[in-house]
Write the structure tokens for this entry.
Amino acid sequence: MKFVAKRKSEPIINVINMVDVFLTLLIFFMITTTFASNHGIKVHLPKSGVKSFASSKKPVTIYIAKSGKIFYKNKQLSKKQLSLLLKNIKAVNSNSTIIIKADKKSTVASIVDVMSLSVEHGLYKIAIATKK
């Protein structure tokens, strides 16, 4: 008696399901990255080799243009208005981090002014943003 050996069929990978999953993930990431809010003016940050740090959940970003003007959420502030803003931030969350994004051509005096106002109002977590 002769036995006939059954041929094993080649395994088939259904690529259509995999493509559907990848396209869904791609759409998800494309949509969620558009929600990143970037309030402020365009400044050219200086470069640094230091990695970023862990900050508070909602840091407050203050922009300094190369002319020395201070901005918060696209609104120009005077030093008195900045002082009131920092006072309100301290009242809401005393553990807030102040991130200063200063143009690389801005003066050190304007950066020091923002830092000193922050310290005056009890906000001691201050960071200066740089590019890698």
The two ends are 76 Å apart (CA to CA). The chain has a mean pLDDT of 83.
